[in-house]
Amino acid sequence: MWDFPLFPEQASTVAGRVDSLYYFLVGLTAFFSILIGAAVAFFAIKYRRGNKADRSNPFGESALLEVIWMGVPLVIVLTIFFWGTSVFFTVVRPPKQAEDVYVTGKQWMWKIQHLSGHREINELHVPVGQPIKLIMTSQDVIHSFYVPAFRVKQDVLPGRYTQMWFEATKPGRYHLFCAEYCGTQHSGMVGSVVAMEQADYEAWLRGGSGTAGQPMASAGEQIFMQQGCTSCHMDNDAGRAPLLKGLYGKPVALADGGSMVADEQYIRESILRPMAHVVAGYDPVMPVYQGRIGEEDLQQLVAYIKSLGTSEAAQVGE
Known about the structure:
This protein is an alpha+beta fold. It has three domains: 15-50 and 60-92, no CATH class; 99-207, Cupredoxins -  blue copper proteins (Immunoglobulin-like, Sandwich); 216-306, Orthogonal Bundle (Cytochrome Bc1 Complex, Chain D, domain 2). The chain is built from six helices and twelve strands. The protein has a five-stranded mixed beta sheet, covered by helices on one side. It has a five-stranded mixed beta sheet with strand order 4-10-9-6-7. Strands 11-12 form a two-stranded antiparallel sheet. A hairpin with a 4-residue loop joins β2 (109-114) and β3. It is elongated and about 95 Å long.
């Protein structure tokens, strides 16, 4: 017998919900397609020219029919809307306990950094039962990170971060594809997500297999020191730049009167193009690092700044 499944294996917490909505939409489409097709065929045959069907009692106005005609589609559309919205918000909102993994798309490979310092190319090892948040960017063109078994897909864009998350529910090796045409070798930009039991994952981390490195936050701290960032970003309010302790996830008041939440994208832009988001109360004295720092070093800096804590009283920004 041929092993040719019609659908990929369900291997994440959201896969079943996505499939249920898909089956509902397909079933609904099939039901009305058959119903309308059968009605068209029936009336075309019954009332064809020359047939002696009774045409003496044409159907008149009916308030009940109009209510049903409008009410049934309204209920169906609202069901699809609220069901789809529920699935969408589940898919795009990572749990707070999700573990960060940094992904860089590049023609034609996936480069991956774990917070522990492990690096991989075209493979991503994750533990079963642990939400994983992917923070992704591209070094060249638009790519798309797609794992069919998890029912997750997200475009990966140059010059900014996008994110998605998943939680594997069973061990296995699952296909990873680029789902956005990205050049002549697009079809070869494939890889695997390897879901492992927690004990096996910890053994993989200890083993390293040549992938182990310095934890990202520690590496980012070294870059922070080497670039002389401590001369302005001090541990107190005496510096010429805002405190970084407690930066991540906090609202930032800007000099133009607006505000932003200090997420990964904000931190990235504040390093590369600091004039884009000047914090209220500070002079725009930070140098531009666009073109002066590599993507992996930038990811390590972001990981370091995120690790600095969440002091409620800290004044934050870049």
